[in-house]
Amino acid sequence: MSAYKTIFFLGATGYLGSEFLLLLNREFPDLHIVALLRNVTQEREAQLRALYPNSSVVEGTLDDDAVIREQAAKADIVINCASSDHTPSVISTLAGLEINSKNNPRRPPLYLHVSGCGIISDNARGEPVEYVKEWSDIGLDLKECNRRNMHLDSDIPIVEAGSRKENPVRTIIYYPGQIYGIGEGIQKTTLWLRIFLDMTKKLGFAGTWGPGANTMNNIHVRDCASGLLLVLKAASEGKADEGPEGLYFSASMEPKKTYHEWTKVMGDYLFEKGIINQAGSRPLPNEVVDPLGEYGWSLLGGNLFVKPERLAKLGWEPVETKKTPILESLPSMIDAALQG
């Protein structure tokens, strides 16, 4: 990693981003992190430096095109853990990286983007199905995915940037499954848990898109962060697949749990704590699911079966996922989210 000096980081204080920075600091503390932060305060800067002392802050949001372009144009590496579906920030990043590549023709920059397995949803609408295709990341072609699925509007331009000959960018996209567990970084709990928890508290019961028979591979946040670091190390050594081949699923092959199973655990636990008035889980009413439209049905009502063969080639194993299964983790995750 000695050839690299700076990383422009989006999402540094988030759930996966801050977990990753802890690991990065243990192995590569000499890299300088420039983190994009909104609403900068001394407290937020101190939180970041507690994770990664060799860091500085540039204030801005994902909508600040000029800020993102400027930082991407001069960083050796850009890592985006902030949002899988904020296409404008991806376009800004790629524009800055194109300038970067033009200015450094012998050393194109590296872009490591965190997306999600929603790209391969079967849109089962929560219904049980007889067969679900299991997608490998080897031979994966994003243009073969259902174009109505999530993340593709951001991901396809990234692959195209990693495929061109003029002003090329080294691109890798990382696709986590259902991330869970209590993080050691700044944000302790995953976004999907906080969304479902907030919705459950407002409704008074836990629920699913349709009957909740759909499921996906899961991954503990520590394993997800370790896989991301492994990919970065491999890329720095010229050993990672990149461009059209640089698509990495990050997921365990541990038993999958349906949305009905884990929302039932959530409903039962919150009922026992007296926070809601109904135990178990049931299909959510139209007034909840309709506002999200096909976005919600694709992401929250589909099956997402993946096989992380590229990470396996690098020697990665989901150690924490095997030790702490998702259903066993849910009560402590809920407690942490409630306290937060």
Q: What are the defining features of this structure?
A:
single chain; 340 residues; alpha/beta; Rossmann fold; 2 domains; 7-stranded parallel beta sheet; two-stranded parallel sheet; 13 helices; globular; NAD(P)-dependent_oxidoreduct; NmrA-like domain-containing protein
Report on this model:
This protein has helices at 15-27, 42-51, 65-72, 87-103, 152-161, 191-203, 221-236, 259-272, 286-289, 293-300, 309-313, 319-323, 326-339; strands at residues 6-10, 32-37, 55-59, 77-80, 110-114, 134-136, 170-176, 178-180, 206-208, 215-216, 218-220, 247-250, 257-258, 281-283, 305-307. The chain folds into 2 domains: 6-179 and 218-250, NAD(P)-binding Rossmann-like Domain (Rossmann fold, 3-Layer(aba) Sandwich), CATH 3.40.50; 189-216 and 256-303 and 320-339. The chain has 340 residues and is α/β, with parallel strands linked by helices. Helix 1 links the parallel strand 1 and strand 2. The protein is 40% helix and 17% strand.
Number of strands: 15
| Share of helical residues | 40-55%
CATH superfamily of the largest domain: NAD(P)-binding Rossmann-like Domain
**Strand adjacency order, main sheet:** 3-2-1-4-5-7-12
What is the strand content?
15-25%
How many structural domains are formed by the residues?
Answer: 2
Point out poorly predicted stretches: none
Element order: H for helix, E for strand: EHEHEHEHEEHEEHEEEHEEHEHHEHHH
Sheet of most strands? 7 strands, parallel
User: For this structure, what is the CATH class of the largest domain?
Assistant: Alpha Beta
Instruction: State mean pLDDT (0 to 100 scale).
Output: 96
Q: Overall 3D geometry?
A: globular
The first-to-last residue Cα distance is 36 Å
CATH topology name of the largest domain, in short, is Rossmann fold
GO molecular function, one term: aldehyde dehydrogenase (NAD+) activity
InterPro entries: NAD(P)-bd_dom_sf, NAD(P)-dependent_oxidoreduct, NmrA-like
Domain NmrA-like: 5-82
Protein name: NmrA-like domain-containing protein
